Amino acid sequence: MSYLVLLGLLVSVIAALAGWLGNKEFTDKNRKTGLLGLIPVHLQWVFGLILYFVSPLGMQNFSGDNMGDSTARLYMLEHPLTMIIAVVLITIGYSRAKRQIGAGNKGFKSIAIFYGIGLLLILIRIPWGAWPGN
Questions:
Q1: N or C: the chain end with fewer CB closer than 10 Å?
Q2: Looking at the record's lineage, which domain of life comes first (predicted)?
């Protein structure tokens, strides 16, 4: 699922940048392209929320002693908080864009900026050592 999140966001950001820089009209088809990033992000957020409460690396690991351990702090605080911020930004970007259908390229701009910042936040707080395939 994590690969789908990154792929969906990457496709959405690239399509939005192409539309924005190409000064194209934002249409309903372009709004649907934005869903390629939004839907996997929301699904992954739900899965992550469930894992946070059942995994020993999440909520069960929450204590003042673990704040000194960088790996424990990443899993219990930094990763979840950053991912929530990224999901909120991506959702705001999509919500703003869907109201911009037919209003020039403003929808592209909204998706490019908010999804781009969300993607950047996701990339900097992925626990790469536990990434599938490593």
A1: C
A2: Bacteria
CA angle 53, 86, 22 (to 5 degrees): 150
| C-alpha angle 39-45-51 in degrees, rounded to nearest 5 | 140
User: By C-alpha distance, which of 130, 35, 122, 128 is closest to 87?
Assistant: 122
Q: Is the pLDDT of residue 128 over 80?
A: no
- For tokens 């739900």, what's the residue? 46
Please say whether the beta carbons of 65 and 79 come within 8 A. no
- Which pLDDT does position 132 carry in this prediction? 64
- Over the stretch 50-109, which tens digit does the pLDDT of each residue have? 988 887 777 667 777 777 777 778 888 889 999 999 999 999 999 999 888 877 888 899
Rg (CA), the chain: 17
Q: How far, in Å, CA of 9 to CA of 33, rounded?
A: 10
Residue 42 burial (CB count, 10 A): 16
Q: How far apart are CA 79 and CA 77, in angstroms?
A: 6
Contact by Cβ (8 Å): 93, 118:
yes
